[in-house]
Design goal:
This protein is an alpha/beta fold and 306 residues long. It has helices at 15-21, 24-34, 39-61, 82-95, 109-112, 120-131, 154-167, 180-189, 191-194, 208-221, 228-241, 250-270, 285-289; strands spanning 72-76, 104-107, 135-139, 173-178, 199-203, 225-226, 282-283.
């Protein structure tokens, strides 16, 4: 494009109107509704959305440009909202025209890597075929690379992914996710991935207050609620549970609430006579305190540990 084609400096762009017109506030509001806390993550997603919006405006005005690299890395412990953010990110990318369809395809190593010669390439290519036009979310991506196993075919999947990430980045965004330390090691052993990742976003653990808020939100969505005493009990549960192994933030809270609902159902069925309709919605402290956590034992979702 020649210099004469560049819009005059008097040309004014209402970026806030552009932002609203693209529906970006709707996606970001949805992210606020989906997830408690995570302010640094939400701020970074807003920054990326703003960058892409301006890139779209620049393209419309005829500025010389090239497709930005949009592949991402989400690092953090389980249950911190990585998949939910990836889903919202897919919607933002579609709204701004950086992918055609905006679907999210979530996979792990087992979906990409075969168990015998000639099996991996077809599996990986089939997943990529489904993901083209949207976002491919690879959870625990570091398991793709197992250098200690000579018969492992993960490297074949990696090579195919790297090629597609480079050659089809105009219509596919890949998000790699997992624990921060393991992802750092994975990138150090696979520099091809690091060079293709434009955005690294770290997802912090929730604090106790946020986890309690999450528990109330989860119950509200199912027309349940904690009694005042049960709310205190849930707070105590959270303090104890997060000190135990295999704590997974919101995921562990969801499991705990599922078990609390099981206990509530058993408690109500054991009562004689009719029960008030409100009782069907109410989680009481005994539904929480019956957890193994209060006996100093590991919590579990197993059928014998309700």
């Amino acid at each position: 494009m020649s210099f004469a084609q560049i819009p005059k400096s008097e040309t004014l762009i209402d970026l806030r109107a552009e932002f609203a017109g693209a529906g970006l506030e709707t996606y970001l509001y949805g992210l606020d509704q989906d997830l408690v806390g995570l302010k640094p993550v939400k701020s970074r997603i807003r920054e990326i959305a703003s960058l892409l919006l301006i890139e779209r405006v620049r393209q419309r005005l005829g500025f010389a440009t090239e497709t930005p690299t949009l592949h991402m890395s989400f690092t953090g412990n389980p249950g911190t909202g990585k998949t939910t953010v990836a889903l919202r990110m897919a919607g933002i990318l579609k709204a701004l025209g950086f992918v055609r369809q905006g679907q999210l395809i979530s996979v792990t190593r087992d979906d990409l890597v075969g168990q015998y010669i000639g099996h991996t390439a077809p599996k990986t290519k089939e997943i990529l075929k489904k993901a083209i036009g949207g976002v491919l979310f690879i959870d625990e991506a570091y398991y793709l690379y197992r250098p200690d196993n000579e018969r492992d075919y993960g490297q074949e999947a990696i090579e195919i992914l790297l090629q597609v990430m480079e050659n089809q980045r105009e219509d596919l965004v890949v998000i790699l996710a997992g624990y921060a330390d393991r992802m750092d090691n994975f990138f150090s052993l696979n520099p091809g991935f690091r060079s293709r990742i434009a955005h690294h976003i770290d997802f912090p653990d929730y604090n106790n207050e946020e986890l309690l808020h999450i528990s109330e939100t989860m119950l509200q969505r199912q027309n349940y609620r904690l009694s005042n005493a049960a709310k205190d009990a849930m707070g105590e549960y959270i303090k104890l549970r997060r000190e135990q192994p295999y704590f997974s933030n919101a995921r562990s809270i969801r499991n705990a609430l599922d078990r609390a609902r099981l206990r509530q159902a058993g408690r109500l069925m054991a009562q004689e006579g009719s029960v008030a309709a409100e009782a069907l919605m109410l989680i009481e402290p005994e539904d929480i305190f019956a957890s193994r956590v209060f006996r100093g034992q590991p919590d579990s979702a197993g059928p014998n540990n309700v």
